[in-house]
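Format notes (please read before filing issues)

Several people have asked whether sequences and structure tokens are stored in separate files. They are not. Every record keeps both together, in the order shown below: the sequence lines, then the token lines. Line labels are part of the format and must not be stripped during preprocessing.
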Amino acid sequence: MDLYMMEQRIREKAVKAISDILKSAGYDVHHASPPIDLSAVSGSTFLVVVCSDDQEEVTRFSETEYTVKGEKGEKICEKLLVTFDPSIEAPDCIVWYAEEFARYAGEAILSRVIGRQLLLQLGDSGAPVRSHEYSDDQAGNSIKIPHLPVRVHREEAEDKAGVPGVATLKFLPYWLYRYTSRGSGKFKDQDVSFDGSGVGALNAINGSLIEVDPDTVTRRSIPQGSEVIRHQIDKETADEKITGNLITSMTRKVRARQVKGDAIYYEEKNVAPERSNIALELRELFIPIWQIKGKKIVEINAHTGERLREPMDDGVEVF
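Then the structure lines:
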């Protein structure tokens, strides 16, 4: 009986912590009826949560499909399982073990302290997976990675390419980032505010920056036979590149007017934010492309249908 009560207390504490994490990420969170512990919604993502170390309960949760009625009909809910037993398996759930629980709990606290929203990728927002978790025999074999959904079919991509050849689906690595900037700079009597926030993504192969909507990201299984491309730019380097770009984009040229006697002259200076003014959070993201190899290589963005001006993964490694 004491053991059961201890497990219940741990579960209650875990549920409270998960609620705080989700709220830090902008979710609207509610307590739910058993066997569900929590329900949450953010944008187009609907989530149900169970905290349990009981394999039987976990199996039932994993095998059950939960839906919610929305304006556009029924929508399948994503399922988040939180467990501290590393032997627990839930193939149809997003699973947080102790390591993930500790990481997100810490990040949630930091987000609240510095006053920014936690970038948490779940379901339609994707759940982060480290690159070293992939292996050659996993690629395209029912693995789940945070990615933009494939909206362009193979035949459509081959038509768009305009060259003969068979299209191969590849997932290119990116670093999805969210930033918050606070503070100001001053030159003479003029103040420059650096307050702002935003999201974007950095290509982990060539370092280019793109706009991306985090709400479009999914963590469902990628199609069989797909290739997952390795990162060429690690997280630390990406952080430096993104921060440098943000500093450049927020730098303002300030012109100060001065009068000395009958003379009027102007002095100009670039005012830039300090690195310490910028809080940056990074997550893995993969963007699907169709690659058609004929006399030349043509690549089509499998999410937008856009034809890429030059191949983005030529000569890089595949998991």
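For reference, the curators noted about this record: The chain has two domains: 1-115, 119-319. The helical segments are 2-24, 55-63, 98-114, 154-161, 235-250.
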